[in-house]
C-alpha cells in the first residue's frame, strides 16, 4: 500500500497506518509502543460521554495521554447528542485534536442502550450526534460497521450521512454487527462507500500483515488502514508495513511498555494490568504456556520483567 499522510479536518497525520480504539488495551502505554513502530495515529479506547458527565473516575483515567503523542485522538460513545456535544467542548477533551465517535460497537450492554452499532439503525440521531460534536471545532471522525446483519448493508448511505453531517473522516469496519470480529471483511461495501464521499476513508478489519493491508487498500481504494487485534498481538506490524529497517527489538519495547505502566501504577497494579497484554506478546514464543503461567501468577511487575529478560 502507498504510505501517505491523511488530512482529518485541520490535522495532518504523518502516515495512514492507525492503531484502532481497543477497550482495555489501547491505553497511553500501548499507543506509545505502536507510535515507536511508526503508527501515524493511535486512538484511546472508547469513553462514555455519560460516564464523563457524571464524573466517573475510571472513565477520566482513559483520557490520560503522554506529551509524545503529538496528535491526540479520543474515541467517545453515547446516544444523547446534547450530552455528547457538551463533552466534546468540555475541558475533559480539551487536549484532544481528533474526536472519533463510536457507531460500531456490537457489545450488548452498549447496543441495547442505543449506543455504538445501534446508531446504524438511526441515521437521523447519528447525524445529530455528529453535528453536535462538530460544534467543538475539533476534527471529528466516525467509526462504524457496514450494517447490523448480513445482507442489510447501510455502508454507503451511512458514509454519506457522516460527510453531510460534518465528519472529517470515517473508518469503516468491513463486518456486520452480528459477525462481531470474525469472518472476512466485505471489501465491496467499503469500496462503494469510499467512492461516494470526498472525506478520507480508512479501512478496518482483519489486517494482521503487510499483505492484508495491501489487500484492503487494493480492493477498496481506502486512504489508510486501521489495525486492532493485529497491533495488540504484534505492535511491530506498523514497522512491517512501513518496511522500516532496524525497527526497535520487541523485547526492548516490552520493557518500555512495562516501565510506562510501573511509573503510573506502581509494581503491584502493573502486574495485574500488564498480564493480558503480555499474553499477546508471548504468543509464538517457545514455552509460551509456561511463560504465561509465570506472568499470570506474578504479584509484582519485577517478576514480569524477569520473564521478558529471559526471552
Ligand atoms: C478487545 C477489543 C476491544 C475493542 N474496543 C473497541 C473500542 O473501544 N472502540 C471501537 O470502536 N472498537 C473497538 N474494538 C473493535 C476494533 O477497533 C476493530 O474495529 C475490530 O477489532 C476489527 O479490527 P481487527 O480485525 O483489526 O481486529 C475492539 C476490539 C477488540 C478485539
Offer a few descriptive terms.
311 residues; alpha/beta; TIM Barrel; Non-ribosomal Peptide Synthetase Peptidyl Carrier Protein, Chain A; 2 domains; eight-stranded parallel barrel; two-stranded antiparallel ribbon; 14 helices; 16% strand; globular; binds flavin mononucleotide
Q: Any idea what the CATH architecture of the largest domain is?
A: Alpha-Beta Barrel
Bound molecules: flavin mononucleotide
What's the N-to-C terminus distance? 33 Å
Name the shape in a single word. globular
Structural class: alpha/beta
In round numbers, the mean pLDDT is 97
Helix and strand pattern: EEEHEHHEHEHHEHEHEHEHHHHH
CATH top-level class of the largest domain: Alpha Beta
Report the major sheet.
8 strands, parallel, barrel
The total of helices stands at 14
Number of strands: 10
The percent range for strand residues is 15-25%
Low-confidence stretches: none
Count of domains: 2
Helix content: 40-55%
Amino acid at each position: 500500500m502507498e504510505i501517505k499522510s491523511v488530512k482529518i479536518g485541520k490535522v495532518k497525520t504523518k502516515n495512514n497506518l492507525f492503531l484502532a480504539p481497543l477497550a482495555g488495551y489501547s491505553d497511553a502505554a500501548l499507543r506509545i509502543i505502536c507510535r515507536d513502530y511508526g503508527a501515524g495515529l493511535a486512538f484511546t479506547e472508547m469513553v462514555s460521554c455519560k460516564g464523563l458527565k457524571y464524573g466517573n473516575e475510571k472513565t477520566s483515567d482513559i483520557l490520560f495521554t503522554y506529551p509524545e503523542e503529538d496528535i491526540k485522538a479520543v474515541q467517545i460513545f453515547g446516544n444523547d447528542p446534547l450530552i455528547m456535544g457538551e463533552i466534546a467542548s468540555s475541558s475533559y477533551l480539551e487536549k484532544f485534536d481528533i474526536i472519533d465517535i463510536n457507531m460500531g460497537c456490537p457489545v450488548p450492554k452498549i447496543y441495547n442502550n442505543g449506543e455504538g452499532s445501534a446508531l446504524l439503525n438511526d441515521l437521523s440521531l447519528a447525524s445529530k450526534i455528529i453535528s453536535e460534536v462538530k460544534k467543538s471545532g475539533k476534527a471529528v471522525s466516525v467509526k462504524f460497521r457496514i450494517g447490523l446483519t448480513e445482507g442489510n448493508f447501510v455502508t454507503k448511505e451511512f458514509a454519506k450521512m457522516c460527510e453531510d453531517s460534518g465528519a472529517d473522516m470515517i473508518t469503516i469496519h468491513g463486518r456486520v454487527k452480528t459477525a462481531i470480529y470474525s469472518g472476512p471483511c466485505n471489501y465491496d461495501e467499503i469500496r462503494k462507500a469510499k467512492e461516494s464521499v470526498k472525506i478520507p476513508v480508512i479501512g478496518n478489519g482483519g489486517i494482521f500483515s503487510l499483505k492484508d493491508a495491501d489487500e484492503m487498500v487494493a480492493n477498496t481504494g481506502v486512504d489508510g488502514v486501521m489495525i486492532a487485534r493485529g497491533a495488540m498481538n504484534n505492535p511491530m506490524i506498523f514497522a512491517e508495513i512501513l518496511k522500516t529497517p532496524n525497527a526497535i527489538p520487541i523485547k526492548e519495547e516490552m520493557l518500555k511498555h512495562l516501565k510506562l505502566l510501573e511509573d503510573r501504577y506502581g509494581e503491584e497494579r502493573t502486574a495485574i494490568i500488564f498480564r493480558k497484554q503480555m499474553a499477546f506478546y508471548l504468543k509464538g514464543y517457545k514455552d509460551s504456556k509456561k511463560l504465561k503461567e509465570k506472568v499470570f501468577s506474578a504479584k509484582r511487575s519485577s517478576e514480569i520483567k524477569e520473564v521478558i529478560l529471559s526471552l
